[in-house]
Structure formats: structure tokens, C-alpha cells
Amino acid sequence: MAASCPLPVTPDLPTLRAKLQGLLQFLRDALSISNAHTVDFYTESVWEELVDLPPATVLAALRKSASETEALPSETRPLVEAEWEAGMTDFPKIFCETSQKLVSVEAFALAAKYYSVQKLGICTPFEQLLVALRGNQNQRIGENQKAVEFMNMKKSHEVQAMSELISSIADYYGIKQVIDLGSGKGYLSSFLSLKYGLKVYGIDSSNTNTHGAEERNRKLKKHWKLCHAQSRLDVNGLALKMAKERKVQNKVKNKADIEEVFNNSPTNQEKMPTSAILPDFSGSVISNIRNQMETLHSQPHQEENLCFENSFSLINLLPINAVEPASSQQIPNRETSEANKERRKMTWKSSESNIYSPLTSFITADSELHDIIKDLEDCLMVGLHTCGDLAPNTLRIFTSNSEIKGVCSVGCCYHLLSEEFENQHKERTQEKWGFPMCHYLKEERWCCGRNARMSACLALERVAAGQGLPTESLFYRAVLQDIIKDCYGITKCDRHVGKIYSKCSSFLDYVRRSLKKLGLDESKLPEKIIMNYYEKYKPRMNELEAFNMLKVVLAPCIETLILLDRLCYLKEQEDIAWSALVKLFDPVKSPRCYAVIALKKQQ
């Protein structure tokens, strides 16, 4: 078990519930914006129903709000936000009390910012948690590694950050087994196994993913060994080159020079530069040695077993004072060097025995892990972008199994969550729902709605890229819906148009293709009628643009609600010693960047 510092202090349950109450107060009126479907934007007069402002005013206010926030010096922002937060409870300024329509875009934008995860002050810094888990050990590596082969840059960023945290938690508890739920292609599982020497079971519901993960792990392991072998060859090749140069130059030395070197006193030798002590090495070789040493000493201990197993063998080929270190601690003595070599050999051999086992199983909150993993022992449970209900079920499995000492879950696909209080008129047999989880939201019988969860998923991607939603494609679809309603008498359709927009050359082409896909007779509509609808709604396109920007601004609040629900659920459990939300990834690289983390009491 690693020597660790006290874990960071996190908000308690009463504090989180108070934050949740304020968020719900805002969302009770704002949620209607997120739940409005842009397909029905014109057919149901969404703008007139929900917004009591001209679209140009909304767009200008949102753009001004964004630019002012970016322009504020970092030291000024907290003061401005604190001044505004004092009057945060005056919600009628945002929505009209009688019509419930939006009347103040400025207040709406400020409230949405305030109720984001970062502004609420409920997030624990990643670096602070790592320091606490590791104690006096080396701090995090950072983004100094190249993207691992077989992963894109986004996935590499996610896998490296999450695996670093998981390995630190594993060291904290002194355990070696990890269960990766929704392991998919096995990127995280493979990395944890190969780099950190953990025994990982990757469980996925798709048999295709499981077989793909096995093949990908085989290739990654081969690549890992090649990198390791190449590093060994580079170091040993350099040593061989040095030995050859020394042999050649020894032949041309004259006896007088050799005697002169041996007659020098030890005191004089200590004052001599490296080039005088090693006249038989060329400048390029000495330069290469220094480069190898700098690279070696820049690696944290956790990295040593990757590709520098034999690096210290280079030092042993040189005289004890052949390389000039910056400090006496940089170069170990021969005993330490030998010990380090043996330790590295044992580390690599040990990592060879650590395995990643992909398994196929559909996981629910009631899944019995002992039936899936026969050698289940004290372990961690993790999930990187687990879809829909799998994220909350991961937390439920964690709380109900004594063997699982910690959990690290990053969810995604909020639109696939099951909601207990959605469509209550339908008869349902499900007992455990994806949302809500905590007692407070259950008592409130709170429901987000699928459109709100969907808009959060889509909008978060655009927020990360600093963009709004793609207006023209949504505009085409909204006008098409009005054509279908007027000309075919259809208000609801089970079929979907899909991603036709990118294949179309014009609005006319879009309508023709869409009608065919929906099984409607497109010959019924002449070109003139179709274009009349286009001309009718073209001047109102800015309404749709402004409305979608409101959805984008509101998206982080929906995610905050879902994450707060999960964190409150963990805080309600008696046997959990510590739980928190941690911003694990760069949101520009990975929009779903928050991890729900919990640790049980150490035995």
C-alpha cells in the first residue's frame, strides 16, 4: 500500500443537496427549452411559445455574454460572479411568472454558467487527488508521451489520464485486479495491463467487441515488446559503437601517451574535464551518452519498465566518472545500478504474467460478478464512457459488492438513460432506473426527458468545439416537417430521415430524398410548392439559430444534474469513505470529461 496523504475534502451531502435544489429551481422553467424538439420547431410554433424576445436580441446577448467572459481577466472573474450570485434567487427576472417565457437572456446565460460543474464548486482537482493518493511518490507524468498506437489522439488522452488515476488508486489499496465495464475495444484494459502490470477483466455486452479487443490487445502487446526491444537495441548498439571506437583508437596510441595518463594523480584527474578522461571517445558518442542519460533521468519510476530496462547497463560500461551529472544523486553507484537492473528485469517478467481477459456479458445492476469472474478478489471497478444505464449500474454494483474497493466511472450517452418518472402512464416492470438515483430527486419525482438529455449530449460536443448546433441542416428538417404535416396529414412518424443533409445539393434535393426514405410519394409535390415553403421560413431561420444557441448554453446544466444525482447517491451510502467528481480530461479533447469516483474504507 502506498504511503499517502489525507484525501481531499469534498462537499458533504447537505451541501450537495442545497446545490441540487438551486439547480432544480432554475431548470423547472429552463427545461422546456431543452425538451423542445427542433423537428417540430415551426409546426408547433416553439419560438412563440417559449421565448418573448426577438431572435436577434437573443443572439446578440449570448454572443456578448460569451465574449465578455473570455475578455475578463482571470483574477476579476470570481469577483464579478460573486457579485451576481448574491441575487441569484430572483428567478422571475429570467422567466415571466405568468407565461413562463424567457424574458432575460443575460440572466439566463449567467444562471447556466453558475450551475455548471466547475462553477458550483463541487469538483475535486485531478492533481490534488493524485498527490493525496501517491503521497511522496512521483507526481503525474503529464502529456509528454506520444499517442499510443491503435488509438486516436482523443482516446489516447483519455486512456493515459484515466489509467494513471486507476493505477494510483490500486497502489493506494495495494490491489492488482481491475474490472473494466463496457470495455469496448479494450484500449483502457490493455493499457492498464501492459503499462501498469494490473490484472484486468474487460467486460462488454458485444461479442464482436470482445473478439476485436483480444486481437487489438495482441497487436498492442507485440508493439509494446518491439518498442521495448528497440530501446534495448538502441542502448546496446551505442555501447557497442563506443567499444569499437575505443579499440581502434587504442591501437594508434603511443606508449608515451598511455604512460602519461597512468602517471596522472587522482587529484589532477578529478579536475580534468570528461574529454580529457575519455580521449578515446568521439564527441558524437559522448553527446549521445549524455542524451541517453538525460532521457533516462527524465523518466518517472513508473515509466522505467516501458523501454529503459537496460539503460543502466550503459553506465556500467563507462568509467565511474565518465559522465558529469548535474547532482550527485543523478547517477547511482554500481551496486544501485545492478539492483535497478535486476528490479527492471523482474518488473518486465512480472508484467508478462499480468493478463487482460476480455469477457462477454450483459451487465445489469443485479449482475453477480462471481458468476462472471471465477477468481474475483479485492479489486477496482472502472468504466470509460459507459453508455446509458451502465454508468449508474456500475455505481450500484460497486456499493453492493464488498470485494470492490473503489470505482471510477465516466458516463456518456445520457439520452439512453432510463428515467423512472418519464412516461408514467405506461405500465413498466423495471425496478432499477438510470435516473434518478439519489433520494432527493426520487422524492421530487424529477424527470429530465429524452429530448433534454439528447440536447445535452449533442450540445456538449459543440460547446467543446466553441460552436453552435448546425443550423441549416436543422432548418431543412424543421421545414420538411411542416411540409409533411400540411401535404400528407402526418404529425408523427416512426421512421427517421437520418443523415441525408450532407448528401444533398439543395433544399429541393433534401426534400425529395427525405420523402422517398419516409415512404411518401414525392411526385405529389411540384417543385414550386416545395420552394414556397423554403421561402416562407427562410426569414425565420434566425429563430432556430437563436433557439439552438439557448440549448447549447443550457447543456452543461443537464449534465450537472445527472452527475450531482450520482454523487449524492454515493454520499448516501454508509460504507463509502470518500467520493467526488473529478475533471479527468480536457473538455476540448473529450467533452464528457467528469469522473465519478468513490473509495471504500481501508481495512
UniProtKB/TrEMBL annotation:
Query: Where are the residues of the annotated region Disordered?
Result: 326-346
Which top-rank group of organisms is this from?
Eukaryota
Q: Where is the signal peptide?
A: none
A Pfam family found in this protein is Methyltransf_32
The segment(s) forming the Methyltransferase domain are 154-419
This one is known as: Methyltransferase like 25
- This protein's gene is called METTL25
